[in-house]
């Protein structure tokens, strides 16, 4: 009888401990979700406000992009060491320099003349930065893939090769895509001149939808993988929240290109 009582007490204590751990885990996930959503909203709002400013728009947007880049590299939620961070940093800096150089100079705020006719000279001037950055982005991705693969091959211990390769490339692509937000100020200035306002609104809505979907995917990634790969820290959650915003730079770029075509 005494043994049965002890067994029952032990089982009760284990159940209580299990419930306590489950409550802590649920609270931790709730805090993680709040931290990620808050980070994403703040970052997007800052970039949108910077793009709508009447003065120093390009410089402020560039500064915000560099702050986002450095924050992501400092918190670094993925597997890897300092070498992987350097590779991602180099791809981000190279892409930022190419985007800044492509956007430098005169950019038309409209490609329409006489309210109907499209000026080919203005259209070419407006689309040229998109062409330059697209070529630069592709070359950066090729170079990053080569360097990352070579780096993994030079490791003495090649355990988790595919995972490490994927994580480094993911971070590098995110850093390289981030400067796409530099096109947002020119998109804001260009929108009022569109002949088809409905087309411009549709492009922007699709862009916003893609940003939301990417943000949602980051929440799924954290939910499915944080227990297996990562320590449950707020800094990692913030870094995961920033990453889809960095990828969304490509969505902004595509939105700008779509508006030019819609014009």
What labels describe this entry?
mainly alpha; two-stranded antiparallel ribbon; globular; single chain; 2 strands; 263 residues; 9 helices
Give a verbal description of the structure.
- With 263 residues, the protein is mostly helical.
- 79% of the residues lie in helices and 2% in strands.
- The chain has one domain (56-262).
- It has helices spanning 2-52, 57-75, 82-103, 120-153, 161-177, 184-190, 197-225, 234-247, 249-262, and strands at 112-113, 117-118.
- A hairpin with a 3-residue loop joins β1 and β2 (117-118).
- α3 (82-103) packs antiparallel against α4.
In N-to-C order, the SSE pattern is HHHEEHHHHHH
The main β sheet shows up as: 2 strands, antiparallel
- The coarse overall form would be globular
Strand segment tally? 2
Distance between the termini: 85 Å
Question: What is the average per-residue confidence, as pLDDT, rounded to a whole number?
Answer: 78
| Residues in β-strands, percent | under 5%
Measured as a percent range, the helix fraction is over 70%
Low-pLDDT stretches are none
Q: What is the CA-based Rg, rounded?
A: 23 Å
